[in-house]
Specification:
The protein is built from five helices and seven strands; from the N terminus they run βαβαββαβββαα. With 191 residues, it is of the alpha/beta class. The protein has a single domain, classed as Maf protein (Alpha-Beta Complex), CATH 3.90.950.10. The radius of gyration is 16 Å and the shape is globular.
């Protein structure tokens, strides 16, 4: 089975492909000739995932799944949330985003946060959603070289290391995307 993963983020593709059973391969947007920016104009994480999956299926005709992820910080009323990738501006720079978040939390004692991923799957005309949540906290400084996005400043609940310090296997087991993708994989296996 081939599915389009509506992303060109090679880190995400690698992370997700490593979790899929043999027999399911992922095509990127580049692989299907989709080079335009897919709109992400919905006010929710769920809405953006659905919008991206709908776009690829309707325009290119492929079975597809798309994800959207947000980092929701308790003391910031859930921000940056749906705007996580462009929190510090349209350049979507991870360091700028982390610096802005660390600055916003400078005088806050509550540093609790959660990563939330929603995967929207379009398969044979049906839409199914899968949600993964990873509770944790924001550190006071960046730690680690692995991962991407906010990984250097996020510690999962019960862990002393950030996502940027643990292995990809550990992150897939406890992380938000891993949880959502595991639901997707279980769903695909049972079809």
């Amino acid at each position: 089975m081939q599915l389009v993963f509506a992303t060109n983020n090679h880190n995400k593709i690698k992370e997700v492909q490593s979790m899929l059973p043999k027999g399911i391969s992922i095509l990127s947007l580049e692989d299907i000739g989709c080079f335009e920016d897919i709109p992400e104009t919905q006010p929710t994480i769920e809405g953006n995932a659905i919008q991206k999956a709908n776009y690829v299926t309707s325009k290119y005709g492929y079975d597809c799944f798309a994800d959207d992820t947000g980092l929701e910080v308790g003391s910031l009323d859930g921000a940056p949330g749906v705007y996580s990738a462009r929190y510090a501006g349209p350049q979507r720079d991870a360091n700028d985003n982390m610096n802005k978040l660390l600055e916003a939390l400078q005088n806050k004692s509550n540093r609790s946060a959660q990563f939330k991923t929603v995967v929207a799957l379009h398969l044979k005309g049906a839409l199914t959603l899968f949600t993964g949540i990873c509770p944790g906290e924001i550190t006071t400084e960046k730690q680690g070289e692995k991962g991407f996005g906010y990984d250097p400043i996020f510690k999962a609940q019960g862990y002393d290391q950030t996502f940027a310090e643990i292995t990809l296997e550990e992150k897939n087991t406890i992380g938000h995307r891993g949880k959502a993708v595991k639901q997707l994989v279980d769903f695909l296996k049972n079809r």
